[in-house]
Amino acid sequence: MLIKPIYEILPLTYLVIGAGSVALLKEPYAIIASLLVYFYGAHIWNQRSRNRRTDRKRKRIDGILPESIYGYLPFIYIMSAGLIFRFLPRDSGVVFSICLLTYGLYILLRRISYRHHKVPVVKMQRW
User: For FRET with 2, which of 88, 96, 109, 127 sits at 20 to 30 Å CA-CA?
Assistant: First the structure.
């Protein structure tokens, strides 16, 4: 069993190690392994986020995409931006990767802010 500070930072650690390894390593098998570590961190992040939701299921809006793909979208955008920046370092590639990175971070930050719902506290009145 891990202590809470280490347990809470594990998905972020996997994401950073995976993204950093994609940026720094040159061998194709190492890049594939880095992508696996990155998406494993995204998987853990999604599981925790889904488990910690406090809003009611009936108030959630169903979208077009299945939830398995929908949860990974910001991570796919961020990693796509990194891969484009790494393998297409031309002017248009840099601009496109900045746009993808910004949009992916925007979606991720919105989802983080939506996961802090408060359950209303019912106060008992004394008669």
Answer: 109
